Amino acid sequence: QAQLVQSGGGVVRPGRSLRLSCTGSGFTFGDFGMHWVRQVPGKGLEWVAAISYDGRDTYYEDSVKGRFTISRDNSKSTVDLQMSSLRPEDTAVYYCATMTTVDYWGQGTLVTVSS
Amino acid sequence: SYQLTQPPSVSVSPGQTARITCSGDSLAKKYGYWYQQKPGQAPVLVISKDNERPSGISERFSGSSSGTTVTLTISGVQAEDEADYYCQSTDSVGTSWVFGGGTKLTV
Fold it and tell me: Which of B85, B76, B80 is nearest to B105 (CA)?
């Protein structure tokens, strides 16, 4: 059974850093580009970042450019989101996802940025 | 930044047909996708590439595209279809992904 399992998240103070991880299983992870999507509780979905299947190309939403870094290790079937200079407005549930015709999503992890 | 526009809410009675629209300039050239999200759950893809239904998705779900608008149609709406629905696409260059604001379907 194909799945994405997330780890990381929690409460962090503004300006600090946090790393989210996502591990795929049950499918050929290296065949898929991967995305991070976030959702403020009670609000809509917001795309955050993407990385190509081979890790060569990365893309970011404007508000996280220069602060967040997406990376992957296909040998471990993992995709990470390194978040730096965190702001209160980054508080959200973060999902990893394939977002293709073969669509898998992680279970989501809450990141709370608060002093 | 690029935007997709959806109505905030749609309300239908059980057994009726629900239609949810999504508008955006790049939809004339880029595919639209539709996600269903129920409270406390991750989104689920219900329509891919404007009108393709993924395996396991009910035949009551269908999609269409015309110009800069894509439409999700749910026929014979059931109580279990009550959820938030999001359209998704990319900008014209294909390097920025975007979601619509979401439509709350009330049955």
Answer: B85
Please report the pLDDT score of residue A100 as a whole number: 87
Q: Check if the beta carbon of residue A36 is closer than 8 Å to that of residue A89.
A: no
What is the rounded distance in angstroms from the CA atom of residue A69 to the CA atom of residue A61? 11
Residues A64-78: pLDDT tens digits? 999 999 999 999 999
Burial of B68 (C-beta count, 10 Å sphere; 0-12/13-18/19+)? middle
> Would you place residue A107 in the very low, low, confident or very high pLDDT band (cuts 50, 70, 90)?
very high
A103 in reach of chain B (CB within 8 A): yes
Mutate to test the interface with A, among B96, B103, B104 (most CBs of A within 10 A): B96
